[in-house]
């Protein structure tokens, strides 16, 4: 591996962000990953890599001294020395995973520099765990990684295009990852005390400022939004961008400009930070905890308001966009709403796409962007009325724009195999999307499709525009069910076949429908429906299906599907490792059944009056989980029409934890002879039913981990009500 | 169904047991079940049934009043009213099981009369559970059952021969069952107080008695014993008679006569019941608990010793055989031993066969028996020197003879599907065989092959003869492993395939042997061998195999097989119902490997020095059950020869209950990336091994119940030691 020690730290390719940069090469754009020759591709990726790697290192020029590397700018984040090494280690880890390399570069450094962007716990940040190396040592390590990656870019086997499952994806992912950290590290530097930062000629802020324009509303017509990125797409994307999202957005009004410091000052002066009533609950808690009185980068001096930039404080540029977290933006909207009587709020993610699509904007091309983005202009914000996009300003660039929308997966979402925790930990309805990018957002970050999300109290170079709309936005479901039992059942009902065993619910319903030939198919009851698959399958034939289960948690999953939502759950793989899975009725060709199925919580041994008049009742894997199977069997005929059929399927796995020993239907010696559960069923059912056909065993498989399964045979009997 | 109310209670076919009976028809012998015409067979079975049913009813003539039906003769048994109904109910239950009938005769009676011969618990005998019917009601019920059975005998479809799996087996079983109760009820009547019994002209005891002959020893030469009854045999047998038993018995001496009351009196007079030192431990406990001072049917009156017969007490007939339980018989032998210095003991079951075979005796034929058996002569014992059989007397008949042998299953033993608890509950080494039959032993009981066993403290019409032999008898293994985990593993290793998945141990060894081609095959280690199947499989190729497991209980099963014994275990079927299973190395064609395998208890994380120098080490389903897999992996190369192979198979099912979370090899995020167990294996093994070939998954299935299985994939990796 050639030593890179002698490479100039800042190569001529670097385009420092400064107003005069128009004459300099642009900071490389995220490349198309399929076009042109192999050699052309290698060149393109090399440029993209080196420009990124260099630019990232140049950021650390803004640190004034060694202490700046080791003192944490904010408590919940690593010191900057970590981030200096982290982006290099990331390359190594991902290259190992796609097997482009087989050995580590520096085991010790790679253990130190591996973890930590969002949501770190206190334990992860225990300083005692680390004995940080010097910046020079880390630089040496970075040089080794740089050489390694350049060697791969030059020599590794390559098959174009490079898409989602190509091993080279790891290289592009490493570059895009470093671009994210270019931005987040710039925020940390901005949060550092002034004594730790210094001026750098490569990071020059905008010097222009003035009086802010008066904000006005612009109408956005009703329109469709479409996002549709698939795994063969030739532009790099993070996992959450993939899949299909299509919706129609009602007309709304939006502010022409981002909210400026000027506009926000009214809120501050109106006691916005003192009167808690404009704040949402979570915002109130944040406000109480931090005692904030104004935006975090605002500095109040005796001579007036100043604004903290990356390496300096400047007299408040009132026409620049205010930078706040979600809570502050939301409180402003609520205040504005009470002031104006208008339904002011933040835009949803979809409303932002509508604004973007209406504005005619495009992602940065190979010319200087008409937006304060991608380091094309400044190492800071600039006036909100500088970059017009159609009827709007700053649709993208300047600062990120908070939305009302917590990040959620599109239909068809899948984690990337080498980075399964990029988005999934944020599917908790506590991470809101920011859109549009800031002055330092580069590469993928500058795309319309980019979907970054942060906790609502987090600070980035982020502000907001507001909308006026009566439309109440619903929060898309993003939760992944992680409860072991629920997710096992979700997979059992809606997931993949194991060992070639057909879906159990479907197999039962197929059997039932054969037995029901020429019988009425109006109403069916699926008692003990669990997560409801059989209810939907029954609704293919029946006009109405009632699904009842004792567990409200089970039913919620079925109800979620019935609402047309996607069911998401994790699957245990090995130890604590999980995979992510989603299913919808659409995929299963069951969407047409949704409106015929109703789910209720209920007790099979004590059913409410309303559940009666059924032509068919299914009790699948139920009787050996009841506290009193006798009660169930003795009463259930009252709910079944004469001539109707009761289907019982059970492995007869009697366990004292579910059914007291004395309540078992069978599986013991009675009067000296083996008394099976089938004997017990006859005992309780023969008065009202005729058993039709011989019992048969239908197999089912419940997946516990990637390698461990319960494989069970359920005995199926059919009972026709005759009395 | 024709009413049987008008049938005479005692039909002319009944042959009362009395000395003058020589001119009366003999009590029907157990019939051949295959020969002759269908009509002839129906006649034969009808006679066998009616004579038995009648004779059983005639026994109750000996009861003096209604109270005699309801007062328990002994605390641990039902009152006689139960037994009066029980033999009829038994027919119904077994006929239902073979589907010769489909409905019960009397649900309430059949619930009352179903259970209870041996070893009842206090709960079963709770009087509150029963409201006994009157004897007349039971007689009415018996008549119904009689008519039912006769109707079947006349009209049911019949296919000859009637053997083990023929539905008609239920009828023959019912008859033989009633004959057993003929004897056991006669014992209960004998145990009743005199006020409850009365003389019956159909049950006349022997009136002959005198001075007992002096007992002498007769030599029995060394000889073979063979029992070999299979399921196509045309003579009825109980389950424990089936299978093969073949052995050679060393020469021994045995008493010419059964021990008479006279001979036993010496022991009583010598303080035999007062000095506990001649009693075995269990016998001592019985003696202390009961405070017995003499045989149970002996009555001490002021005018001397009397003997209780069925319905009267008579002056002690000193030349009749003494009737005792095993403990008393054994104490007598021990006393005799200390008196004579000779190795006196009871005969083993096999020694009894040798005596029988030498005596030239045959089971009762169609002429009057030359033995006090089958009710051919008396309703009591008779002098011990009345019936000579070759050099011996009373080889069969008069009273049963206790043996030293606890009942155990022959090779090939199987429970009968309609009576799975006839013998199995007695396979506990606490039930000793009695042989030879008594004066009332009829049908199957009178056969050489009959194998009845009772708890050692139990009383029947049973006494003993003794043998003198230095031969120490070993107790054949009879225990069925019922521990859930052990029996599941026994089946997993030695049982049947489920879902077409090949035997796991065998599959692993096959893979190993392919990898070991051209390598030395001297010594193999099976670490975590459990019940040892892979050890035996390895021994097909290796000269020596060591099997080590942490669980001594697992190893015992393997060691038992290695000794050539049969492994017996129960399989959970449904609820508490079980089936019975046995396996031997012979059946599995592994018997030749037995002497090459050694089992040890040991800790895989802390192996003793001696276990080293292996060419191959197998760790199957081990690593995720260790408390420190790291210790195991870091040390195991010391036990493997250079060039040798370590095979690791595991589903990587990490559970905190076996392995503390911090000791897992993988299955978690490490430095931000998924760290699999395979990564962990490389981490610990790469210093000493080269992994050969790609990992592959080998499935295995563990059966939990008839319908519930664990179906698991074990990842197999092979590691060649290189350093």
- Please give the number of β-strands of chain A: 26
Q: In percent, how much strand structure appears in the residues of chain A?
A: 15-25%
Poorly predicted ranges of chain A:
1-22, 117-126
Mean pLDDT across residues of chain A: 92
Oligomer status: homodimer
Q: Ends of chain A: how far apart?
A: 86 Å
> Mind telling me the C-alpha Rg of chain A?
31 Å
User: Main β-sheet of chain A: number of strands, strand sense, barrel status?
Assistant: 7 strands, mixed
Which CATH architecture of the largest domain in chain A?
A: 3-Layer(aba) Sandwich
What is the molecular shape of chain A? elongated
Approximately how much helix is present in the residues of chain A? 25-40%
Under the CATH scheme, which class of the largest domain in chain A? Alpha Beta
Number of domains of chain A: 3
Strand order of the largest sheet of chain A: 20-17-16-21-22-26-25
Secondary structural class of chain A: alpha+beta
Query: What is the count of DSSP helices of chain A, taking H or I runs of 4+ residues?
Result: 16
Keywords (chains A, B): Iron, Oxidoreductase
GO molecular function, one term (chains A, B): formylglycine-generating oxidase activity
Pathway (chains A, B): Amino-acid biosynthesis; ergothioneine biosynthesis
Domain DinB-like (chains A, B): 49-184
């Amino acid at each position: 591996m050639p030593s890179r020690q002698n490479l100039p730290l800042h190569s001529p390719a670097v385009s420092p962000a400064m107003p005069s940069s128009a004459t300099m090469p642009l900071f490389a754009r995220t490349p198309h990953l399929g076009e042109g020759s192999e050699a052309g591709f290698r060149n393109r990726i090399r440029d993209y890599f080196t420009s990124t790697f260099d630019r990232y290192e140049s950021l650390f020029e803004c640190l004034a001294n060694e202490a700046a590397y080791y003192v944490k700018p904010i408590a919940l984040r690593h010191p900057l020395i970590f981030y200096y090494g982290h982006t290099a280690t990331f390359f190594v880890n991902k290259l190992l995973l796609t097997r482009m390399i087989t050995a580590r570069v520096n085991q010790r450094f790679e253990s130190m520099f591996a973890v930590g962007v969002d949501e770190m716990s206190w334990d992860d940040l225990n300083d005692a765990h680390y004995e940080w190396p010097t910046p020079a040592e880390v630089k040496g390590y970075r040089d080794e990684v740089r050489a390694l990656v350049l060697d791969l870019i030059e020599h590794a086997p390559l098959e174009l295009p490079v898409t989602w499952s190509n091993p080279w994806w790891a290289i592009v992912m490493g570059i895009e990852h470093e671009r994210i950290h270019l931005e987040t590290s710039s925020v940390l530097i901005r949060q550092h005390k002034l004594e730790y930062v210094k001026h750098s000629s490569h990071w020059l802020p905008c010097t222009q400022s003035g009086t802010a324009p008066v904000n006005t509303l612009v109408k956005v017509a009703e329109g469709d939004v479409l996002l549709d990125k698939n795994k063969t797409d030739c532009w790099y994307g993070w996992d959450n961008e993939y899949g299909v999202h299509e919706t129609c957005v009602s007309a709304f009004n939006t502010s022409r400009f981002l909210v400026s410091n000027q506009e926000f000052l009214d809120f501050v002066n109106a006691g916005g930070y003192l009167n808690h009533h404009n704040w949402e609950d979570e915002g109130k808690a944040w406000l109480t905890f931090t005692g904030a009185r104004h935006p975090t980068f605002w500095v109040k001096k005796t001579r007036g308001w100043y604004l903290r930039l990356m390496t300096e404080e400047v007299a408040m540029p009132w026409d620049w966009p205010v930078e706040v977290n979600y809570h502050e933006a939301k409180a402003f909207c609520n205040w504005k709403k009470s002031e104006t009587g208008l339904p002011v709020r933040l835009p949803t993610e979809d409303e932002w796409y509508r604004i973007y699509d209406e504005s005619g904007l495009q992602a940065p091309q190979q010319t200087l962007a008409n937006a304060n983005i991608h380091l094309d202009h400044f190492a800071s914000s600039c006036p909100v009325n500088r970059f017009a996009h159609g009827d709007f300003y700053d649709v993208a660039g300047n600062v990120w724009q908070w939305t009302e929308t917590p990040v959620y997966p599109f239909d068809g979402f899948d984690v990337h195999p080498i980075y399964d925790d990029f988005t999934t930990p944020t599917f908790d309805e506590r991470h809101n999307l920011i859109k549009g990018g800031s002055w330092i957002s580069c590469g993928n970050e500058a795309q319309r499709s980019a979907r970054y999300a942060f906790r609502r109290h987090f600070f980035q170079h982020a502000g907001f525009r507001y909308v006026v709309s009566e439309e109440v936005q619903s929060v898309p479901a993003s939760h992944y069910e992680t409860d072991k039992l629920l997710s096992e059942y979700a997979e059992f009902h809606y997931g993949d076949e194991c060992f070639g065993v057909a879906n159990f619910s479907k197999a039962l319903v197929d059997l039932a429908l054969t037995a029901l030939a020429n019988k009425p198919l109006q109403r069916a009851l699926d008692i003990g429906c669990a997560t409801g698959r059989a209810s939907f399958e029954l609704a293919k034939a029946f006009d109405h299906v009632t699904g009842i289960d004792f567990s409200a948690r089970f039913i919620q999953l079925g109800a979620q599907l019935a609402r047309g939502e996607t069911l998401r759950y994790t699957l245990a793989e090995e130890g604590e490792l999980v995979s992510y899975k989603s299913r919808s009725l659409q995929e299963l060709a069951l969407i047409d059944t949704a409106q015929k199925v109703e789910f209720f919580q209920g007790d099979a041994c004590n059913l409410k009056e309303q559940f009666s008049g059924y032509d068919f009742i299914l009790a699948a894997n139920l009787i050996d989980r009841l506290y009193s199977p006798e009660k169930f069997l003795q009463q259930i005929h009252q709910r079944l029409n004469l001539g109707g059929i009761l289907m019982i399927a059970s492995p007869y796995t009697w366990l004292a934890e579910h059914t007291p020993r004395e309540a078992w239907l069978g599986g013991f010696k009675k009067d000296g002879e083996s008394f099976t559960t089938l004997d017990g069923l006859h005992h309780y059912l023969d008065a009202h039913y005729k058993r039709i056909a011989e019992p048969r065993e239908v197999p089912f498989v419940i997946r516990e981990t990637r390698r461990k399964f319960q494989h069970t045979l359920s005995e199926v009997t059919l009972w026709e009500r005759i009395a």
